[in-house]
Task: inverse folding
């Protein structure tokens, strides 16, 4: 599927955080390094950031506080996510606390979007939906969204909002790429029906069939002089179910400023060669059903 309008490209800031506590994932820690990353991204004409209360993993709030000190909210549209690591985190009082902490650390009174990072299946969705609707009406964020929920859970959440006249979520963030495409079958139709946009993120895979498929795609891309990572990004941007007209986005992360430029160059290179797209489709059909889910099944 070729795109009609390109999705928005959003810099994910999982790599902004405490490098002492999380040396494997936090690559931008000092004020100088964080500012260099943001300056490089902004100078390329982009102004969207994605973060979360639970970044970095061992020091919740480390990413938001560094973005706050860099005055990121003054020039970027920020999407963040509430603390969602433990059962009960989506109780109204805890949501209010997490939202307040995020806004305080980001040094702003409101953000573009506030996500429920992971489903809290121990807290009634009715309570969570009301709390998010109330916070939205208070101007703490312009939109709110669901992340890592199953399609059935999204439907249940929407039903609760409609029944009680709560504001509905307008965005979904989940796992999606050339190999992880389960959301196309059950989730995307639901999102389109309810005018919800999709923000796609991606990560590494451990399932042997998927690893083999990824290796094949990497080799095929190299024959075209395209890196495997660039091919994956360009497929998601130009040949997937993502549509800019629906507000869809791609969230990507980097560990170095140089990597940022490579990814943006790839995304700005346009669609892939037709034969490579066809090959990627054929490879996906071989692993379909064995790929990771688009949502998280824990909890």
Result:
């Amino acid at each position: 599927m070729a795109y009609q309008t390109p999705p928005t490209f959003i810099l994910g800031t999982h790599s902004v955080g405490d490098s002492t506590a999380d040396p494997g994932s936090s690559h931008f820690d000092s004020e100088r390094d964080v500012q260099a990353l943001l300056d490089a991204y902004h100078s390329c004409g982009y102004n969207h950031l994605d973060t979360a209360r639970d970044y970095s993993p061992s020091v919740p709030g480390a990413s938001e506080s560094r973005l706050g000190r860099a005055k990121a909210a003054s020039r970027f549209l920020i999407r963040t996510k509430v603390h969602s690591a433990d059962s009960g985190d989506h109780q109204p009082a805890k949501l209010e606390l997490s939202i307040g902490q995020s806004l305080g650390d980001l040094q702003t009174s409101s953000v573009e979007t506030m996500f429920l990072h992971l489903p809290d299946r121990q807290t009634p969705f009715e309570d969570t939906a009301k709390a998010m609707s109330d916070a939205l009406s208070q101007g703490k964020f312009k939109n709110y969204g669901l992340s890592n929920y199953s399609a059935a859970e999204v439907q249940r959440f929407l039903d609760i909002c409609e029944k009680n006249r709560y504001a509905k979520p307008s965005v979904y963030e989940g796992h999606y790429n050339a190999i992880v495409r389960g959301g196309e079958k059950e989730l995307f139709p639901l999102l389109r029906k309810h005018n919800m946009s999709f923000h796609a993120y991606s990560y590494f895979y451990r399932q042997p069939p998927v690893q083999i498929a990824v290796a094949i795609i990497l080799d095929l891309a190299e024959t075209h002089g395209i890196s495997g990572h660039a091919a994956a990004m360009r497929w998601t941007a130009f040949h997937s179910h993502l549509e800019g007209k629906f507000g869809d986005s791609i969230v990507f992360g980097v560990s170095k400023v140089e990597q940022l430029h490579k990814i943006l160059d790839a995304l700005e290179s346009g669609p892939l060669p037709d034969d490579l797209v066809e090959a990627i489709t054929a490879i996906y059909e071989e692993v379909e059903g064995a790929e990771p889910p688009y949502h998280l099944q824990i909890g």
The first helix runs from residue 31 to 43. The first strand starts at residue 8 and ends at 12.
